[in-house]
Here is the input.
Amino acid sequence: MQSEPLAYRPCVGVMVLNRDGRVWIGRRPDAPAEPEGPGTWWQMPQGGIDASEDPAKAALRELEEETGIRSVEIIAESPAWYTYDLPAELRPRAWGGRYRGQKQKWFAARFTGSDEEVALVRPGHPQEFDAWRWAGIDELVGLIVPFKRAVYEQVVRDFAVLARPRSQP
Here is the structure.
């Protein structure tokens, strides 16, 4: 008798673009307990959607919890939900073994604040990143953990047109 396949965890991701068309990325700490496995990986902010939560609101909430960033305007939404599977050996450790991977809705947001707004250590929230920087959109796929690369390739295709410098006011 086979058991039911595990579900995908509902999740959002945010591509934050600055005035120069560069993308905010954070470095995940190299820790053995991390679901991604050993290695040093950079990624865009992402996180789970609470029950009955609107995905766009979840994206803004997760962005603030992980980075401190509040000064953004959502400018685009991915046309579809994208999924990735965790490697089988990571499934028992990630999210209590309840999910096979994540189902993600992605948003692009224009950053309207200053870099001083970024706060990686936030009271009441676990620290997701130990460093951050602005990156070119063409760097993203090579910096993410391998099992998320297909999703990042699609997100880059979806939002590439938005990753260009904005004129100064």
